[in-house]
Design a protein that fits this description.
heterotrimer, A alpha+beta, B alpha+beta, C mainly alpha, A: alpha+beta, Cytochrome-c3 Hydrogenase, chain B, three-stranded antiparallel β-sheet, globular, B: alpha+beta, 3 helices
């Protein structure tokens, strides 16, 4: 944080309002930031969202439960599998049904692959925000391999419609396990490569360490979740702390921010936590691939979803944080109300708090480290 | 770790006037709170060391659609009377317990209290609830629309009787 | 030099025009090549192929791009300050073009053999700052203005260590004439200034590390003067969209682009002339060996271009590897590290020369 002294405290200079976005290379979508500047120093940041609002929640009220699945894909389009897992878990808990073993394993494999893919985009675009172009392309090269795996499983590369309430749309293709194993062996060295190229770069550390520090108290009060919360030092991961699916069977660690190069909860911590989480996801994937049982994957899919009157809030650990679905049923074929707790929406709220007193260049660094997807913010 | 019933007892003893009751909406149990008491109840919930509800997971506004349904000549319908609700899902990261609170306000006068001073993340959630179902939160620092355009004057889209306007700023709405 | 030769039989004005056009013959093909080269270098660093379609391995890609830029509509924002907006790209290019006048490409060609050659180049490059400021102001765009302000602050700051390093050299050789400086570094690689020049004995051993440091300083500062990564904050894409040239399109944008690449070579040429022996070959000349003396200047030109392009390639390499500094860190690097260090080197070298 930069401190500047004014020569005369009585002198009141006029602030410049800089409008960043909705079209801007590093707002990660159509986010508009109204930045009040004193020179290059930030006085205030006001985010304006809603440019990508697609009335998701209104649509849900007019559709049956299975019909909603393709729509949840379009919220967090970088982690569509995880949106589907969240929705499927919510509907299953509302109905009170169990899903077969194999389905649980498939979901975890898909979810963790998706987490790696999503973190790769986050890390790569973060490098891009700081000005390093090359790591971005390295990240996308590896993400491409994951998308190929998804494509051979369900035919789509970004919006899958694969995980349904009660099961998955069809079984894994015969080569999937072998190719995933190959990918994992290829991917492990690239994390090291990426660390050497970007994470430990002196300029990169200078730009991100001690920038945008998020204290733990503030983080919890603002409802920040996911890697951003863990970077602030709380060991809080819904895969452990509010278990869903079969995550309790796997052996993995939950990394927390330690202030490696600065203060706990700065941009570098948030960035680096995603690197460690990718390693942990690889660990989960290796175990899941070894253990996956044979079995039927579509047997538990209900023919007709008609829950009794009631409501439920379930949440899963999306790559960006706590993705929650609040579903109210009035006993019909369509939900009465579906409200999504989008992690990006809640995490973005902290931006104004974090940016105060920093420079314009830091807005980009802080925004990138929060890692938002505008499709999910605006729904 | 406390169950909803235990917390309900604690709240009932302290705020007997303001706690309406406990409703079962399987699989969740909801504690109903009076609109003008939600601020002090939530301030108690976060400050009490045994409860310590420091995390607001989600705050959702919903239209209960429980008024009298009147059909209009053009095929649409309208609800007269009934309530709007605000549902608070809160948890404690220390004690690992969860709680669901609900506030119901009459549709004609949908005013309740803001909890932004208790949980800062309620800011945008309340703006969204205002934007989508039209609940007004007193003492909110900046209660304006969030996802819809700031000058949207055709009502609140997530109410069940919402009708699309024909024009917005001179543009035909369903293109 | 070339001017004197031509004016002896054509008169002063035609000679000036012809002598002035000669660098253009170099700059335009160089810029075409450098843009292609930058794309290929970056592509191969990033596991890509780069342009492959136009010509053999995309060799004609830049020409296709130029054709596209020429055809583009020349958009001027309605609220822009039109005269300034139109002059700015020309002025920027003039600044970098005028610098080429004093660069010794070979012993037979130097546009103007000025006694204060280095200072002239540094001075005339200052025009670039004026051009950038004009562009930023006239665009009537806040991003452009911020970018222009940053670049003015940056270029002015980074000129100080550059000039101090040049002063260091001056204290060693006593001339600022680039031609004479190049001639001093002839015959042997160890006469290059980076190896302590023509100084002999124990002083040379002391000088070598100092000169290496001075070389690094001047390379870094010139890198900052041409706004390349990691000092590209004036046009920081992710923050300021493109900085001062956000509002430019078509040929005016191409002018900025051309000026940037011309500048890249100009600063590499200065560094080459000052430290890396100028146009001199490290090994001796083929022309001298086989007794064809007119071959020597041509060889010299190739050596000069080779060294210049090698330095430009290092600039590209840095650009595609490193992230970007923040504006205050950039100033810290200059004022807290480079300037004191260059002063220290200046002091030690001057003392050594007196001893």
């Amino acid at each position: 944080m930069i401190e500047m002294e004014t020569t005369s405290t009585n002198l009141r200079t006029q602030e410049m309002v800089l409008n960043m976005g909705p079209q801007h290379p590093s707002t990660h979508g159509v986010l508009r930031l109204e930045i009040e500047l004193d020179g290059e120093l930030i006085v205030d940041v006001r985010p304006h969202v809603g440019y990508l609002h697609r009335c998701f929640e209104k649509h849900c009220e007019a559709m049956t439960y299975p019909q909603i699945v393709p729509y949840v894909d379009r919220m967090d389009y970088l982690a569509a599998m995880y949106s589907e897992i969240g929705y499927a878990v919510a509907v299953e808990r509302l109905l009170g049904i169990e899903v077969p073993e194999r389905v649980e394993y498939i979901r975890i494999i898909m979810g963790e692959l998706q987490r790696i893919a999503s973190h790769l985009v986050a890390v790569g675009t973060y490098g891009l925000d700081i000005g390093a172009f090359t790591p971005f392309l390295y990240c996308f090269r590896d993400r491409e391999k994951i998308l190929t795996l998804f494509e051979m499983t369900c035919g789509a590369r970004l919006l899958y419609n694969y995980i349904w309430p009660g099961g998955v749309s069809h079984d894994l293709p015969p080569d999937f396990i072998r190719m995933t194993k190959e990918f994992l062996t290829e991917f492990k060295p690239t994390i090291v490569e990426l660390n050497n190229l970007l994470s430990y770069n002196k300029i990169f550390i200078e730009r991100t360490a001690n920038v945008g520090i998020l204290p733990l108290e503030t983080a919890i009060n603002y409802g920040v979740t996911g890697p951003n919360l863990r970077a602030s030092g709380l060991k809080w991961d819904l895969r452990r702390d509010d278990p869903y699916s079969i995550y309790d069977r796997f052996d993995f660690e939950i990394p927390v921010g330690k202030g490696w190069h600065g203060t706990v909860g700065d941009c570098w911590d948030r960035y680096y936590l995603r690197m460690i989480e990718m390693e942990q996801s690889v660990r989960i994937l290796e175990q899941a691939i070894e253990q996956i049982p044979e079995g039927d994957v579509t047997s538990a899919i209900p023919k007709r979803i008609k829950p009794v009157e009631g409501q439920i809030y379930t949440r899963v650990e999306n790559p960006r944080g706590e993705l929650g679905y609040f579903i109210v049923s009035k006993g019909g074929l369509q939900p009465h109300r579906v409200k999504v707790r989008a992690p990006s929406f809640v995490n973005l709220e902290i931006l104004g708090e974090l940016c105060k007193g920093h420079l314009v260049a830091d807005v980009v660094a802080i925004l990138g480290s929060i890692d938002i997807v505008l499709g999910e913010v605006d729904r | 770790m406390k169950t909803t019933e235990e917390i309900f007892e604690v709240l009932k003893n302290r705020y007997s006037e303001d706690i309406i009751g406990i409703t079962n909406m399987p699989p969740e149990k909801i504690i109903d709170v009076k609109p003008d008491a939600i601020f002090k109840v939530s301030a108690f919930l976060i400050n009490d060391p045994d409860l310590d509800f420091d995390n607001l997971m989600i705050l959702s506004g919903l239209d209960d659609a429980n008024g009298t349904k009147t059909n209009q000549p053009d095929g649409s319908f309208e609800f007269v009377g009934g309530t709007l609700s605000v549902v608070y899902h809160i948890e404690s990261t220390k004690h690992r317990h969860k709680l669901v609170l609900r506030v119901s306000v009459p549709k004609e006068n949908p005013v309740t209290e803001s909890v932004v001073k208790v949980w800062a993340c309620a800011d945008w959630h309340e703006r969204e609830a205002y934007d989508m179902v039209g609940v007004i939160f007193n003492n909110h620092p900046n209660l304006i629309r969030i996802l819809m355009p700031y000058d949207w004057d055709a009502g609140y889209p997530l109410r069940k009787d919402y009708k699309n306007p024909e024009f917005y700023q001179g543009m035909k709405v369903p293109y | 030099m070339i001017f004197d030769y031509i004016s002896s039989f054509l008169g002063a004005i035609p000679a000036a025009v012809i002598a002035g056009l000669v660098p253009m013959v170099f700059i335009i093909p160089f810029a075409l090549f450098a843009v292609y080269w930058e794309r290929k270098v970056s592509a191969h660093m990033q596991d890509r192929l780069g342009p492959m379609r136009v010509g053999y391995h995309g060799f004609l890609q830049t020409i296709a791009d130029i054709l596209k830029l020429i055809q583009k509509e020349d958009i001027v924002a309605s609220a822009a300050d039109k005269p300034l907006f139109n002059i700015a790209p020309v002025l920027t290019f003039t600044g970098s073009y005028a610098a080429f006048a004093a660069i010794p490409f070979s012993s037979a060609y130097i546009g103007a053999n000025i006694d204060l050659g280095v200072l002239y180049i540094i001075g005339v490059s200052g025009l670039v700052v004026a051009g950038l400021l004009m562009a930023g102001w006239a665009s009537n765009n806040k991003y452009s203005l911020l970018g222009a302000m940053r670049s003015a602050a940056q270029i002015v700051s980074y000129e100080i260590p550059t000039v101090i390093v040049i002063l260091t050299l001056f204290s060693m050789v006593g001339t600022l004439n680039l031609y004479e400086l190049s001639e001093l570094q002839s015959s042997n690689m160890f006469n290059w200034m980076i190896f302590g020049g023509t100084v002999t004995g124990w002083k040379k051993i002391v000088l070598i590390p100092l000169m290496f440091a001075a070389f690094l300083i001047i390379y870094l500062t010139t890198l900052a003067e041409v706004n390349r990564t990691p000092f590209d904050i004036p046009e920081a894409e992710s923050e300021l969209v493109s900085g001062y040239h956000t509002e430019y399109s078509g040929m005016k944008f191409a002018m900025f682009f051309l000026a940037e690449y011309a500048n890249m070579f100009a600063v590499s040429a200065i560094v080459t002339s000052l430290f890396l022996g100028g146009y001199h070959s490290p090994f001796g000349y083929l022309g001298n060996t086989i007794g064809i003396t007119w071959l020597v200047p041509i060889e010299q030109f190739f050596w000069f271009a080779f060294k210049g392009i090698a330095l430009v390639t290092v600039q590209m390499w840095l650009r595609w590897t490193l992230p970007r500094l923040r504006v205050d860190q950039l100033m810290v690097v200059c004022w807290k590290y480079l300037i004191p260090l260059s002063f220290l080197i200046f002091l030690i070298v001057s003392l050594l020369m007196v001893l």
